[in-house]
Amino acid sequence: MFTPHDPVAGALLGRVPAEFPQCCVVATDGDRVVARALGVPFDAGTDGREEMPDQGWDRVLVWAFRDRRYGHAPTAASALEISLDVDCLGRGLSSRMLAALRQAAARQGHDALLAPVRPTAEHLDPRVPMAEYLRRRREDGLPTDPWVRVHVRAGGTIEKVAPASMTVGGSLAQWRQWTGLPFDRDGYVDVPGALAPVHCDTVHDPAVHVEPNVWIRHGVEPHTA
């Protein structure tokens, strides 16, 4: 998968549990970790910032580490990822992990958990704009996308698209290695797992994937001692 090659993820994601343990949770089955959920606090009140930036996932992760370095008090909490052991899929564990992240945000005194959500089925229609994709509904009115549906069922509200939530760039040789595709023509290339086409430039050699996500807000009740 190419997303771990996002330079922001490569530089910072692995440090999140140690730097922000108050915003992270795990689920165990005996001695085995079967799920983890990562989040970060950040200051959305600094001049030039917005609570839900267009750069989404990348931006809030950078802000969180910058705020920690310079001692800026956080005003918001953002989820980053929820990952499950494959043996635990389909058991409702993702909803429980999302609830645990909301509780963690509440314990930090925040009134909301924000989430730059990566819709899990958008890769099946990568040429469909994210805003259009999000308008798709089932007969019961819930989103057709499974992961967005989990968030909405949990009380989350879809706020806006983050059009450049993650950016992965690399040489054509790297993209060939990551995907097994030829990357031998200029233009947009559909890559399995990508939420939008990857732009290929055979003259200058790079290929770049700019991934859209969707901001979802979960209201929480701040914890009081």
Oligomer: single chain
Strand content: 25-35%
Mean pLDDT: 95
Counting DSSP E segments of at least 2 residues, the number of strands comes to 8
Shape by Cα distribution: globular
- Fill in the CATH topology: Aminopeptidase
Main sheet properties: 8 strands, mixed
The end-to-end distance, rounded to whole angstroms, is: 43 Å
Instruction: Report the radius of gyration as a whole number of Å.
Output: 18 Å
- Assign the CATH superfamily: Gcn5-related N-acetyltransferase (GNAT)
Q: Total helix count?
A: 7
- What's the helical proportion of residues? 25-40%
What keyword list fits this structure?
eight-stranded mixed sheet, alpha+beta, globular, 7 helices, 225 residues, Aminopeptidase
How do the helices and strands line up, and which of them pair or pack?
Elements: H1 7-12, H2 16-19, E1 25-29, E2 32-42, H3 56-70, E3 76-84, H4 93-107, E4 112-117, H5 130-134, H6 146-153, E5 157-171, H7 172-179, E6 187-189, E7 198-200, E8 206-219
Parallel strand pairs: 3-4
Antiparallel strand pairs: 1-2, 2-3, 4-8, 5-8, 6-7, 7-8
Description:
- This protein is α+β, with helices and mostly antiparallel strands.
- It has one domain (3-165, 211-219): 3-Layer(aba) Sandwich (Aminopeptidase), CATH 3.40.630.
- 27% of the residues lie in helices and 29% in strands.
- It has helices at residues 7-12, 16-19, 56-70, 93-107, 130-134, 146-153, 172-179; strands spanning 25-29, 32-42, 76-84, 112-117, 157-171, 187-189, 198-200, 206-219.
- Strands 1, 2, 3, 4, 5, 6, 7 and 8 form an eight-stranded mixed sheet that branches.
- Strand 6 and strand 7 (198-200) form a beta hairpin.
- The longest helix has 15 residues, at 56-70.
